[in-house]
Amino acid sequence: MSNDNQYIEKRKEKIRSLRDMGIDPFSNKYDRENSVEDILSKYSGTSPSSFKPDNLIFKIAGRVTAIRSFGKSAFIKIIDNMHKIQIFISNDSVGKEKMDFFKKYVDVGDFVGIQGHAFFTRTEELSLEANHLQLLTKSINTLPEKWHGLTNVETRYRQRYVDLIANNNVKGIFLSRSKIVAEIRNFLIMKNFLEVETPILHTIAGGAAARPFKTHHNTLDMDLTLRIAPELHLKRLVVGGMEKVFEIGRNFRNEGISTQHNPEFTMIELYEAYSDYEKMMDLLEELIISCVRLFSKNERIIYQDNEINFNGPWKRVNMIEWLSESMGYDVLNNPDKILSEADKMKINHFNVPGKAIVEIFEQKYLKGVLDPVFVFGFPIDVSPLARRSNDNPMIADRFELFINEKEIANAFSELNDPEDQLERFNKQLELKSRGDDEANDMDEDYINALGYGMPPTAGAGLGIDRLVMLLTDSASIREVILFPHMRNE
């Protein structure tokens, strides 16, 4: 029998003994009156020499993370949320009976309730001397070894509950994520945006270039897809008179898994009537900088040992102009040349010049570009939902935001011409027939909605997972998603 199995069996035996004694090893109630953070805050700034014993009694609870036993006394460490404190327990403080119970039945990993007063040890550590101890939950499984923690990446993601216990920084990442999402929400609400919810089960996949997950509704006997984007439903709301809307939610794309991609991910999409893509650049810049300020006073962060400067105004680059200058010819009006170049670079373009232009630009321009940059001037043939530029009908009023070489947001002035939209959808169907399984499907109801009139509108989609990666210095998207998708073991 392995050591782990031996420990588990010993703990199960303790559980049986406790039950024989009439003690519930899995309590359902404990009236915790204080948190460890309360104690740390109360005595913050107090030195051992200036500490004066008081009559304050604290009643706390937490998980035991360490035990040092000395026979008639012991020091234990407990953690409550993210805050740790040392507890001193002895025959004198709780009585011999309770002390014997503690030594026999309490292990690292258990939850305990503690009541006692604060003091400083000889080593000048703020601690609590317990006058009462109660076992709340008996743990069965053993925690990872103290010094090495939980280091296997696969295990960390599969057993996130252990990861949160064993690795102190992990919970910090998700607390930061919560703060970022709250900042995004509060920022938009302060600008009079309305938060809404739209369906996750769609009859037609649309709003992005992605392969959907498919499912079936038994009662209605109809095929459905998990949404790849909420875009078309949110724009229906703009048609209906909700002029400033946003949604934070999950999207699902049946594509590869990598450090940058998870099949299930979180985005925010926002739409504003009477705006355009240039104003949307300003709004996104302000929004992201407000999130950066949660972590940096000078609007600079360190990501994977590289400094990224978020100080505005951010750079804006015209894709067509830059690539034409780089290639030595007008890439927009020389489709054969740009497709030939894409073939040399082994880019799968489905004979669409715009796809070749975008991929070649990203490979040639973005390498080494760390600071935020707005890239605009996207070809219309890769922008099926964006408005045509008044200056050039082959160009869309669209941009993508890149930070640290990665796309963070996609935005454009929305196409509100139903006839043009119908023509674009038909071209998407042609691409699908040629094997492009990321091309949009025809959404006739959306065309019908546009027929009622949509005001000039700009919209944007921002990847929250990637933003959290940047602001928490996380190398993989799996580090910022609590339960990332994994292959079956």
Summarize the entry for a quick read.
The chain is α+β, with helices and mostly antiparallel strands.
Question: Can you offer a commentary on this structure?
Answer:
With 489 residues, this protein is of the alpha+beta class. Helices cover 34% and strands 24% of the residues. It has helices spanning 3-20, 36-42, 91-94, 96-105, 153-158, 160-166, 168-190, 231-239, 277-292, 319-327, 335-344, 353-365, 418-433, 444-451, 464-471, and strands spanning 58-69, 73-80, 83-90, 111-120, 126-137, 194-195, 201-202, 214-217, 222-226, 244-252, 264-273, 300-303, 306-309, 315-318, 373-376, 398-403, 406-413, 457-463. The strands form 4 sheets. Strands 6-10-11-18-17-16-15-14 form an 8-stranded mixed beta sheet, with helices on both faces. A 5-stranded mixed β-barrel has the order 1-2-3-5-4. It has a 3-stranded antiparallel beta sheet with strand order 7-9-8, with no helix packed on it. The longest helix has 23 residues, at 168-190.
In terms of topology, how is this protein built?
Elements lengths: L2 H18 L15 H7 L15 E12 L3 E8 L2 E8 H4 L1 H10 L5 E10 L5 E12 L15 H6 L1 H7 L1 H23 L3 E2 L5 E2 L11 E4 L4 E5 L4 H9 L4 E9 L11 E10 L3 H16 L7 E4 L2 E4 L5 E4 H9 L7 H10 L8 H13 L7 E4 L21 E6 L2 E8 L4 H16 L10 H8 L5 E7 H8 L18
Parallel strand pairs: 3-5, 6-10, 14-15
Antiparallel strand pairs: 1-2, 1-4, 2-3, 4-5, 7-9, 8-9, 10-11, 11-18, 12-13, 15-16, 16-17, 17-18
Helix pairs in contact: 6-7, 7-9, 7-15, 10-12, 11-12, 13-14
